[in-house]
Specification:
Elements (H helix, E strand, L loop, with lengths): L4 H7 L4 E6 L4 H10 L3 E5 L7 H13 L3 E5 L5 H9 L4 E4 L5 H11 L23 H11 L1 E6 L4 H9 L6 E4 L1 H7 L9 H16 L9 E5 H13 L1
Helix pairs in contact: 2-3, 4-5, 5-7, 7-9
Length: 234
């Protein structure tokens, strides 16, 4: 059965490295695998991915040795289910501001008894011809990584309750949307944004939970290409 590179690396204390893609690119996926990356993050919130091309991109990522993660546009169970059915092993849930948001994200991402993910015959479940369903479901629950994105000032009102929700593996901060919620559009380095970040990180660690940066690093494909292009010109 499929394994998650990030989960494997975590068990041995290794940092994982990933790359975020905003649009499909089979060539980039192959090159990222050759370069030694551990995972790819498909941006299904802001990017141009559709169910059709996401499924093919997930296949190529797996062939390249990359674990496929995805940013989903919302945490509705039907949305998360659609991404997981393509073979995604990491769900990045946006705009988590309440305990209820975190619970929806967690419950939709795993099978019972840990969650309420629906079981069907998709490529994620080997089209129904793979291992015993109970074995598959138990294994899949151990390989899914769930990341809650905290990106609104209202998070601070509910932070303790959010951190108490079971099934969230990592927390991350979205500074661009956070800055907007503070009335500081585009000012991601503003002291108020940094203050929020410090409060969240300290609270997460005090609860014995992890920020995404505690286990992995990710870079945007556009950043890699742009910086390499500028370096070449210079």
């Amino acid at each position: 059965m499929k394994t998650n590179n990030v989960v494997t690396n975590m068990s041995s204390g290794k940092t994982s490295y990933g790359c975020q893609l905003n649009s499909p690119s089979s060539e980039q996926l192959e090159l990222l695998g050759m370069a030694g990356f551990d995972f790819v993050l498909f941006d299904g919130e802001h990017g141009t991915f559709t169910p059709d091309n996401l499924e093919d991109q997930t296949r190529i990522a797996e062939m390249a040795g990359l674990t496929p993660f995805a940013m989903v546009p919302n945490v509705e169970s039907s949305t998360i289910h659609s991404f997981l059915e393509r073979g995604i092993l990491g769900i990045h849930g946006p705009n988590i501001t309440t305990k209820e948001d975190a619970e929806k994200l967690s419950q939709a991402s795993r099978y019972a008894p840990e969650g309420m993910r629906s079981l069907s015959f998709s490529r994620a479940t080997y089209f129904g011809y793979g291992p015993e369903r109970s074995d598959y479901m138990a294994h899949a629950n151990t390989q899914i990584i769930v990341i809650a994105l905290l990106e609104h000032i209202d998070v601070l009102k509910n932070l303790d309750q959010i951190l108490d929700v079971e099934g969230i593996d990592f927390f991350a901060i979205g500074p661009k949307d956070l800055a907007q919620s503070l009335g500081l559009p585009g000012q991601m380095e503003h002291p108020k944004v940094k203050e929020f970040e410090n409060i969240v990180v300290e609270s997460v660690h005090n609860k014995g939970k992890k920020m995404s940066g505690d286990a992995y690093r990710a870079v945007k494909a556009s950043q890699l290409f742009y910086t390499a292009a500028k370096s070449f010109i210079n």
